Amino acid sequence: MAAISFKALAVARPSPSFSSPSSRPVFALSVPRRFPAQLVPHRSPRICCSAVSVSAPVSVADLDIAGVAAAVVGTKPTVLVSEKLGEAGLEVLRGFTNVECAYNLSPEELRAKIPLCDALIVRSGTKVTRELFEAAGGRLKVVGRAGVGIDNVDLQAAIEFGCLVVNAPTANTVAAAEHGIALLAAMARNVAQADASVKAGKWQRNKFVGVSLVGKTLAVMGFGKVGSEVARRAKGLGMHVIAHDPYAPADRARAIGVELVSFDEAISTSDFISLHMPLTPATAKVFNDETFAKMKKGVRIVNVARGGVIDEDALVRALDSGTVAQAALDVFTEEPPAKDSKLVQHPNVTVTPHLGASTVEAQEGVAIEIAEAVVGALKGELAATAVNAPMVPAEVLAELAPYAVLAEKLGRLAVQLVAGGSGIKGVKIVYASARDTDEVDTRILRAMITKGLIEPISSVFVNIVNADYIAKERGLRISEERIPHDGSPDVPLGFIQVHLAGVESKFASAISDSGEIRLEGKVKDGIPHLTLVGSFGVDVSLERNIILCRQVDQPGMIGRVGSILGDKNVNVNFMSVGRTGLGKQAIMAIGVDEEPDKETLKKIGQVPAVEEFAFLKL
Ligand SMILES: NC(=O)C1=CN([C@@H]2O[C@H](COP(=O)(O)OP(=O)(O)OC[C@H]3O[C@@H](n4cnc5c(N)ncnc54)[C@H](O)[C@@H]3O)[C@@H](O)[C@H]2O)C=CC1
Ligand SMILES: O=C(O)C(=O)COP(=O)(O)O
């Protein structure tokens, strides 16, 4: 065989699922498995072979972007449904999972079951606490809230345990709004009290004289999905509707003839107040002695949001003093409330047992919405209704999928290049893109690099949910930089670089001129490639394992290292050589399917021209 120096070499083979669409490149070179014994090099000393990969490009379906795909290979994931869920949703779940429905479990019973579950589906009645995540022992990957409010889920604990929380935010909106209107009208006309009186054999027409809705001012507190539907309906009843919501766009309110006003103006000028904000630390007990005192005397209050936004003792006082004439409540701080609750028993209070979402239609819709979100998450997709992870539209995900794979692999390679004892503190990620800054969502990529950096050196499980939290907890400072790239804006990124500052490397050539470990990768034809190690340009597809060798640039190196690997039946899937100049230093990057044994690696290290080498697992 002539002594020809290889600059790049592709050993391409179809993946089992490969089919070659006409637009996709096909084999540039086909060689038998036992490379290099029968290798026939190209005759040009400058270009050996064009590097073309024919592995199937990464698609979102192949990719556990959320990092929560059910881990149990070959068995269906298990979903525990702890509260009544519509049959249509259960059907969706059964198509992909083992479903266990166990209602009315005590916290202890739930903790006992949870270690065997990959997902849990709840409504408002189940408290998903830190203790529950702890009891899950790491297996619980998804909590599905079959409804809107997630105040019964400890979101911080979910983040720390890398558990994705998804909800079903739209299917019960109308049901909740209709229930709000039902309570408004029932309260104004004393329907519940009059009904109880007639059933008790009385006929008290003068006692139950109501008030009219038409012409009255209604303040909608929280102008989101439910609040705006309530407003729309109240306008149909002839009410003057104002709203308070610090985050709602004024033009959306204006479009349905509603004026957004301050909190104080809303509560002090209205005859009726309807609550539709979520329970958060900022909204807890916002209706209290002080705020009731600002209300118009005789105001009437409806609450289909959450009991906790009202200080219930203060409401009893306001009802007793007549500041609040009536209240209609679907929700309570404690559910169910105590039997002797003064609030529930108050004659001017109408109550329902958290029925806002309880219509046949809403329950069917919510069940399907949550089942699809949970199944999608268990398949590793990022749910559009994720509460504690970035919500990324499906088309953006599809585009970013191969970059997410690249990002994780760059992280994995980078951390393996760090010499033992030098802890990583600062990570800089550089994204080169021809697009505008806000056109590439890098949150997923950052999470995947973090995953790649942390998982090989620890027992923690990192995913899109907990990546930032875990990085922070471990004192890993991650900075991101965007640089312009003169490539095509049709692709989101030209390349990604990972820089690790202040560390030593066990492969000195991975240190760039600026003293950091530097790796760069690109996506080519949907396949992630390593394109830069330190200051050396290489080009090797990132599939399984990589051997990096620094050598004096000279003929025969690929052949020599290749035959050491070939003798041990280690299959080479990609190779490339980057050098500083003819006959100077070169880096050979070799992609291998199998992990060579220690003896084989030692032999590579003993090849006279090899100055240093590293074996890296992907
Ligand atoms: N009783 C029941 O069965 C049901 C209750 N709900 C509850 O209704 C509430 C609203 O649900 P959606 O409209 O679907 O949610 P949403 O998220 O669409 O709307 C909530 C709105 O509240 C606003 N908000 C946040 N903080 C606020 C504050 N301090 N003051 C005023 N507004 C504030 C937000 O900007 C948002 O526009 C949630 O708490 C939910 O749990 C929802 C469905 C059924
Ligand atoms: O969706 C919500 O926020 C609700 O409050 C509905 O609760 P539920 O699912 O009926 O327990």
From TrEMBL:
GO biological process entries: L-serine biosynthetic process
EC number(s) on file: 1.1.1.95
PROSITE patterns, per database record: ACT, D_2_HYDROXYACID_DH_1, D_2_HYDROXYACID_DH_2, D_2_HYDROXYACID_DH_3
Compartments where found: Plastid, Chloroplast
Catalyzed reactions per annotation: (2R)-3-phosphoglycerate + NAD(+) = 3-phosphooxypyruvate + NADH + H(+)
Alphabetic keyword roster: Amino-acid biosynthesis, Chloroplast, NAD, Oxidoreductase, Plastid, Serine biosynthesis, Transit peptide
SMART domains given in the database record: AdoHcyase_NAD (SM00997)
Residues in ACT domain copies: 546-618
Record bears the keyword Oxidoreductase: yes
Pathway(s) of this molecule: Amino-acid biosynthesis; L-serine biosynthesis; L-serine from 3-phospho-D-glycerate: step 1/3
SUPFAM superfamilies assigned to the protein according to its UniProt record, in alphabetical order: ACT-like, Formate/glycerate dehydrogenase catalytic domain-like, NAD(P)-binding Rossmann-fold domains, Serine metabolism enzymes domain
UniProt-recorded Gene Ontology molecular function terms: NAD binding; phosphoglycerate dehydrogenase activity
Annotated Gene Ontology cellular component terms: chloroplast stroma
Annotated family: Belongs to the D-isomer specific 2-hydroxyacid dehydrogenase family.
Entry protein name: D-3-phosphoglycerate dehydrogenase
Organism: Colocasia esculenta (Wild taro)
Lineage: Eukaryota, Viridiplantae, Streptophyta, Embryophyta, Tracheophyta
